[in-house]
């Protein structure tokens, strides 16, 4: 019996053992699977960031800091303008700009000319006739007038901004037109007689791109919104001058540097008011040079007749796309529906900006339409050219990406223009724009996908990458291109195909980054300062896709690293 | 398809010289009339350029995949659609490209053609050395087509995948492509001005032949006798040619003048055996035709592309070896032969795929023919028969062929004579 009992027990023990082993083995299998998943998540870029993250963050932050003290490149400024970061640094740049002399001296700025002309002391001088010179030196010399200008501007800003401004008349700023970052010595006596629109547009974008004034965000420490308000006023003054929209009662027009699309720059420069029936289509491009007699501010303001000449250079798509994009940003900031927290800027009577300020960016649209239809885009062959003359071949990746950004932004902004306060005719005309802009965007994105996206094995493993010409695009351009495509997919051109391309390109970018950080690889894989900002923009934008971290498991780690980079940079550059 | 069935009719016109008897000539003042009825086997296959037997419908059959559409196999509209889709690919030829993933189904067709021909022939002995002849065929053709559309159509998925990237025109094109079915294809065909495919029939006269024949006999070593005859035939383009508005049309005539020279030689052997060798050469003259000129090589060509083109037909050659025996009025014979039509060329003022018009026109065929006949002419001459006639039953089938129809037929012909003077 006993033995039978043992026999009975043994099988039971055996059964229990089997059951226990089975249970144990299933738990082990689950743990193995979890470890495997964790291991997989730690491969590639994730593993690199896991191993070297601190060092990578330090290196990238140092790159950003170094960019501040180098010559300001257009690409750095453009990427900076588009990133929602670095407000301290941007404020410092605005301060630098405000003290920089411009190509159009403030005495020739129409608003200032008006102010000078209506100044009682000046009028007194005029009536006194022959004693003019003596009285001028005593009462209305350049220094005094500059001071008065500053006072007037500060008063306007103080009246408009809640909490006023710390801008003072003693701090040297000028209301010149078209200053350049290159000329950074404050109050440098000129002459700076030429400006390039390709350079000015970077500044405009920087001014408009800073959220602070528009979003009610606090200004950086030791600063306020005064600088941004000043720079915005200056921008709008410049645009008004470029389009020649400032007219005196006697019909005199100040400025007007636009070019007729049909004729080109050989037809001379002139004003353009799109509200006029016979306005046609005109645009701004290239470099402008001013000539005016060396004289006092009073003399310039009263009698000065500046003369502008224009360099007859080919009209470049990249420059125009940047101008159009910046104009779209301006419209999005200034339009009534978006004023929200910045409504005080437009308050009747005391507002800094006129209520119809949002109409000014619309002046770029007729020229944009004409240049696209008759210049950059050949609709028959569906080709997009680098220059409006169609010489010099098709556009490369950067101009295409910037054009896509501009078209997408305008397409979004013009979807609903009920708040713009336009008459029925203008509204009807503008309502035709979004479908045309969308079709143009489609062509641009199609061109990018067909000609600038390829599977490359340059780095060893095949990866889907952006190409420009015969080579992989530099990292900064690749990151910017990705950011713009994501933006379009998430706004005006949602498309599963585009999304597939974005995912593949993101994977390709992560592979290139991994190579760069693992082996400190080729120059093409090096992340420049602008590349860091664009990469951050792209990776942040990817968060807009649901369940993206399952598809791109390295995204979260990279986002953390990039946020740490910007935080570190901002901490190092506090005023 | 029309060119395929044309060769059937061409074969109808072949003139048998056996009816003229051994000398091949009619005595002066004697006439001959002959009625032949040729019934072709139901035509559902043909021989392609590689000599393979393929269904008649293969030119209508289309696989509407992206690559085929890019090559223009689906017509100009679908080619444009595929090109638009391919513009989103950096490498359209890549396996995983968007255009390569495009599938719009497959069009198949069942085609059956029935052709019969009756030929009325007349001959007259002009003199001891010359016989004139003429022949007029009457053809009846009936073609039935059943279209079948099947397979995967992923145009809607492609449109969805493109999303807002697709241009409005492309979206509309993909919507249309997604709705493709048999009715849509039939409608597309009739919308282009073509007659409906399903059933078509026609009857009418073919090309008239007129010719002259001369012959001689020469005794060789007894009992061998050698005879030879030279025939000159002019083919008149009196038969209807295919309509450019009927996809399944049949040429009843060649549409061009042709001048043929034939030499028939027979070696008469003892015990009424004979061995013969026939050769012929035809020179075909240029003509004008009305055709729809494809843009590339699409089957469905838009009506706007209908134009007059110049047809440069290739020449024809033929050779046949025959063996036979005669016994008391009954003659049996068997023959193998080879005939060739050299490729045609088309050209015109409208730019387009003229090579497509001439594709498959270069044809050749090796065949076997057998015949049995009963001849009362000698008996009539010997006053042992009341009426001189010849009745013949023959059969023909291709052995190997290239770009040719499956020309199997049986033929019954009745020949009799009359005195003209």
Average pLDDT value of chain B?
A: 86
Name the strands of the widest sheet of chain A in spatial order: 3-9-10
Q: Report the order of strands and helices of chain B.
A: HEEEEHHEEHHHEEEEEEEEEEHEHEEE
The end-to-end distance of chain B, rounded to whole angstroms, is 48 Å
Low-confidence stretches of chain B: 1-23
Coarse structural class of chain B? alpha+beta
Low-confidence stretches of chain A: 1-26, 183-189
Overall shape of chain B? elongated
Number of helices of chain B: 8
Largest interface: A-B, 22 and 15 residues
Strand order of the largest sheet of chain B: 1-5-6-8-9-10-11-14-15-17-18-20
Brief digest:
The complex is a heterodimer of chains A (575) and B (421). Chain A is mainly alpha-helical.
Report on the structure:
The complex is a heterodimer of chains A (575) and B (421). In chain A, a hairpin with an 8-residue loop joins strand 6 and strand 7. The N terminus of chain A is likely disordered. Chain A is mostly helical and 575 residues long. In chain A, helix 3 runs parallel beside helix 9, helix 16 packs parallel to helix 19 and helix 19 runs antiparallel to helix 20. Chain A has a 3-stranded antiparallel beta sheet with strand order 3-9-10. Chain B is an alpha+beta fold. Helices cover 16% and strands 48% of the residues of chain B. Chain B is built from 8 helices and 20 strands. In chain B, helix 3 crosses helix 5. The longest helix of chain B is centred in the N-terminal third of the chain and has 11 residues. Chain B starts with a helix and ends with a strand. The N terminus of chain B is likely disordered.
């Amino acid at each position: 019996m006993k033995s039978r009992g043992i026999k009975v027990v043994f099988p039971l023990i055996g059964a229990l053992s089997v059951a226990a082993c089975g249970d144990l083995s299933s738990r082990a299998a689950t743990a193995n699977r979890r470890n495997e998943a964790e291991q997989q998540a730690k491969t590639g870029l994730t593993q690199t960031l896991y191993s070297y993250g601190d060092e990578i963050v330090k290196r990238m932050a140092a790159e950003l800091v170094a960019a501040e003290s180098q010559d300001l490149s257009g690409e750095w400024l453009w990427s900076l303008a588009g990133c929602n970061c670095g407000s301290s640094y941007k404020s410092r740049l605005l301060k630098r700009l405000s003290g920089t002399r411009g190509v159009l001296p403030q005495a020739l700025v129409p608003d200032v000319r008006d102010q000078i002309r209506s100044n009682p002391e000046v009028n007194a001088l005029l009536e006194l006739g022959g004693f003019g010179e003596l009285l001028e030196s005593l009462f209305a010399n350049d220094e005094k007038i500059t001071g008065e200008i500053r006072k007037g501007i500060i008063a306007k800003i103080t009246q408009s901004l809640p909490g006023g401004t710390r801008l003072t008349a003693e701090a040297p700023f000028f209301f010149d037109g078209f200053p350049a970052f290159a000329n950074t010595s404050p109050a440098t006596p000129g002459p700076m007689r030429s400006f390039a629109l390709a350079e000015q547009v970077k500044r405009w974008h920087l001014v408009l791109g800073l959220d602070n004034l528009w979003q009610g965000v606090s200004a950086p420490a030791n600063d306020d919104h005064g600088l941004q308000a000043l720079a915005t006023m200056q921008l709008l003054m410049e645009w008004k001058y470029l389009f020649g929209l400032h007219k005196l009662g006697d019909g005199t027009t100040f400025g007007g540097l636009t070019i007729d699309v049909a004729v080109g720059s050989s037809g001379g420069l002139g004003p353009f008011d799109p509200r006029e029936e016979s306005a046609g289509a005109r645009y701004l491009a290239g470099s402008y040079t001013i000539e005016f007699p060396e004289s006092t501010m009073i003399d310039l303001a009263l009698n000065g007749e500046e003369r502008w000449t224009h360099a007859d250079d080919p009209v470049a798509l990249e420059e125009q796309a940047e101008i159009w994009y910046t104009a779209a940003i301006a419209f999005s900031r200034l339009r009534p529906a978006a004023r929200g927290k910045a409504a005080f800027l437009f308050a009747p009577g005391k507002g800094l900006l006129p209520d119809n300020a949002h109409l000014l960016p619309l002046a770029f649209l007729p020229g944009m339409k004409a240049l696209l239809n008759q210049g950059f885009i050949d609709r028959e062959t569906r080709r997009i050219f680098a220059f409006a003359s169609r010489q010099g071949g098709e556009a490369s990746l950067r101009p295409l990406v910037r054009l896509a950004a501009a078209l997408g932004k305008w397409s979004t902004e013009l979807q609903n223009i009920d708040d713009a306060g336009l008459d029925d005719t203008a509204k009807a005309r503008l309502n035709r724009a979004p479908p045309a802009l969308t079709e143009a965007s489609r062509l641009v994105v199609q061109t990018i996908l067909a000609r600038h996206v390829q599977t490359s094995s340059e780095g060893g493993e095949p990866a889907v990458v952006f190409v420009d010409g015969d080579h992989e695009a530099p990292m900064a351009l690749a990151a910017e291109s990705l950011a713009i495509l994501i933006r379009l997919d998430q706004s005006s051109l949602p498309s599963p195909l585009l999304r597939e391309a974005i995912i593949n390109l993101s994977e390709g970018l992560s592979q290139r980054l991994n190579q760069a950080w693992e082996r400190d690889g080729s120059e093409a894989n090096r992340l420049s300062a602008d590349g860091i900002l664009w990469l951050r923009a792209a990776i942040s934008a990817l968060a807009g896709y649901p369940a993206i971290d399952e598809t791109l498991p390295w995204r979260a780690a990279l986002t953390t690293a990039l946020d740490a980079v910007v935080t570190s940079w901002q901490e190092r550059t506090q005023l | 398809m029309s060119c395929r069935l044309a060769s059937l009719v061409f074969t109808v016109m072949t003139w048998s010289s056996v009816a003229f008897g051994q000398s091949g000539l009619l005595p002066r003042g004697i006439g001959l009339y002959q009625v032949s009825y040729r019934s072709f086997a139901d035509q559902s296959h043909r021989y392609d350029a590689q000599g393979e037997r393929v269904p008649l419908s293969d030119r209508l059959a289309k696989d509407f995949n992206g690559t085929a559409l890019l090559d223009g196999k689906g017509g100009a509209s679908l080619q444009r659609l595929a090109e638009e889709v391919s513009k989103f690919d950096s490498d359209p030829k890549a396996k995983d490209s968007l255009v390569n993933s495009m599938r719009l189904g497959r069009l198949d067709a069942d085609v059956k053609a029935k052709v019969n021909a009756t030929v009325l022939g007349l001959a007259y002995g002009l003199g001891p050395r010359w016989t004139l002849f003429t022949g007029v065929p009457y053809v009846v053709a009936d073609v039935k087509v059943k279209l079948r559309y099947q397979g995967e159509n992923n145009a809607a998925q492609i449109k969805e995948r493109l999303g807002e990237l697709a241009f409005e025109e492309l979206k509309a094109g993909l919507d249309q492509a997604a709705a493709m079915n048999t009715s849509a294809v039939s409608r597309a065909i009739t919308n282009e001005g073509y007659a409906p495919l399903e059933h078509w029939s026609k009857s009418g006269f073919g090309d008239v032949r007129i010719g002259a024949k001369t012959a001689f006999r020469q005794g060789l070593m007894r009992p061998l006798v050698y005879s030879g005859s030279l025939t000159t035939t002019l083919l008149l383009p009196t038969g209807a040619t295919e309509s450019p508005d009927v996809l399944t049309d049949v040429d009843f005539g060649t549409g061009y003048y042709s001048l043929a020279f034939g030499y028939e030689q027979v070696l008469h052997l003892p015990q009424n055996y004979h061995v013969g060798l026939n050769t012929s050469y035809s020179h075909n003259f240029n003509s004008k035709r009305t055709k729809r000129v494809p843009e590339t090589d699409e089957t469905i060509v838009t009506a706007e592309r209908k134009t007059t083109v110049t047809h440069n037909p290739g020449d024809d050659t033929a050779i046949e070896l025959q063996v036979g025996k005669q016994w008391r009025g009954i003659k049996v014979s068997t023959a193998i032969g080879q005939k060739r039509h050299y490729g045609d060329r088309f050209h015109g003022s409208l730019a387009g795929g003229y090579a497509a018009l001439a594709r498959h026109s270069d044809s050749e065929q090796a065949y076997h023919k057998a015949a049995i006949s009963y001849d009362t002419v000698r008996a009539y001459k010997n006053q042992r028969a009341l009426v001189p006639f010849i009745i013949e039953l023959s059969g023909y089938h291709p052995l190997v062929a290239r770009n040719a129809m499956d020309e199997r037929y049986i033929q019954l012909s009745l020949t009799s004579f009359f005195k003209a003077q």
